[in-house]
DNA sequence: CGACACACCTGGATGC
DNA sequence: TGCATCCAGGTGTGTC
């Protein structure tokens, strides 16, 4: 369930358990993730102390003096810190053994995630073409408007393009467009500056709110429990095809855009 | 470049 | 109950 809020929640949850800890060993049970687990995870990481955990887009960078593991959770990945004695289960692909008797355990049924390596002083190629952080100062309605002028693609696909802005996945793209009153299939180049201002504001508001709500799942990193509960109740359109729009009562519709399900209200979004 | 289809993988829900 | 089909929160890659 990793969209940007979940990745940020993961970062915050891992921070107190990892920073200052030494990695003593790395156990790879299944190396074949989206890409093979980087060799450096086993040849360089053991012995290193974690200095910080950074999030860039939906990636996590675990900084050490010798380099930084670059992690992505894909569609189904999760990271937890557990006592080393807890037996690994199906799809627990990688363990980082820590110097306090715990392990950082990576579980990912679909294996779309990855564990790569960024050498000190370099920027990993996967991070090179990313757009601005949606919660940062470089992201604004004006920025979106400027970049979109010649674009014919649907505004939803534009918003989900990680070169345009990072971190907006299928759920939050639908929710932000709904909140901004913009039809997801509208050509990106035909959205006005004013409406992009609204859209940028809604993206920020919704992501920030979700991160705030994600905070309640921090305990999961020690004792796994249920899923974060914020979305089911708080989504306005995502996954609600056929159900009434919470504002106008009209039926929420579903269409496919860019091979992804897209939900919207035809009355509230133009 | 931009736009788009496809690929990667497993599991859960649904339908017959 | 068993089996086929469809769908899922991401994103790099290849083609036009």
UniProtKB/TrEMBL annotation:
Indicate the segments forming the FPG-type domain, all copies: 236-270
Details of cofactor binding: Binds 1 zinc ion per subunit.
**Residue intervals passing through the bilayer:** none
Q: Which residues form the active site?
A: 2 (schiff-base intermediate with dna), 3 (proton donor), 58 (proton donor), 260 (proton donor)
Q: Report the InterPro entries cross-referenced here.
A: DNA_glyclase_Znf_dom_DNA_BS (IPR015887), FPG_cat (IPR012319), FPG_Glyclase (IPR020629), FPG_N (IPR035937), H2TH_FPG (IPR015886), Ribosomal_uS13-like_H2TH (IPR010979), Znf_DNA_glyclase/AP_lyase (IPR000214), Znf_FPG/IleRS (IPR010663)
Summarize where DNA binds, as residue positions.
91, 110, 151
What function is annotated for this protein? Involved in base excision repair of DNA damaged by oxidation or by mutagenic agents. Acts as DNA glycosylase that recognizes and removes damaged bases. Has a preference for oxidized purines, such as 7,8-dihydro-8-oxoguanine (8-oxoG). Has AP (apurinic/apyrimidinic) lyase activity and introduces nicks in the DNA strand. Cleaves the DNA backbone by beta-delta elimination to generate a single-strand break at the site of the removed base with both 3'- and 5'-phosphates.
Protein name as it appears in the record: Formamidopyrimidine-DNA glycosylase
Q: To which species is this protein native?
A: Tahibacter amnicola
Its ancestry begins with: Bacteria, Pseudomonadati, Pseudomonadota, Gammaproteobacteria, Lysobacterales
């Amino acid at each position: 369930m990793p969209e940007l809020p979940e990745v940020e929640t993961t970062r915050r949850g891992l921070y107190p358990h990892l920073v200052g800890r030494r990695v003593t060993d790395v156990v790879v049970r299944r190396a074949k993730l989206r890409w093979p687990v980087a060799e450096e995870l086993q040849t360089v990481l053991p012995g290193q102390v974690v200095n910080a955990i950074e999030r860039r887009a939906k990636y996590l960078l675990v900084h050490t003096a010798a380099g930084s593991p670059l992690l992505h959770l894909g569609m189904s990945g999760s990271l937890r810190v557990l006592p080393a004695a807890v037996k690994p289960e199906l799809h627990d692909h990688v363990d980082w053994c820590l110097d306090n008797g715990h392990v950082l355990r990576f579980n990912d049924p679909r294996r779309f995630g990855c564990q790569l390596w960024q050498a000190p002083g370099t920027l990993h190629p996967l991070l090179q073409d990313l757009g601005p952080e949606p919660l940062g100062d470089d992201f604004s309605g004006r920025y979106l408007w400027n970049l979109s002028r010649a674009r014919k693609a649907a505004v939803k696909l534009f918003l989900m393009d990680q070169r345009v802005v990072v971190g907006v996945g299928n759920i939050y793209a639908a929710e932000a467009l709904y909140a901004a009153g913009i039809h997801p299939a509208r050509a990106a180049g035909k959205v006005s500056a004013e409406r992009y201002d609204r859209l940028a504001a809604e993206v920020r508001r919704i992501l920030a709110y979700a991160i705030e709500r994600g905070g309640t799942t921090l305990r999961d990193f020690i004792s796994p429990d249920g899923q974060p509960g914020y979305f089911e109740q708080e989504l306005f359109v995502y996954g609600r095809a056929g159900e009434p729009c919470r504002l106008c009562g009209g039926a929420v519709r579903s269409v496919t855009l860019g091979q992804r399900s897209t939900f919207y209200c035809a009355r509230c979004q133009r």
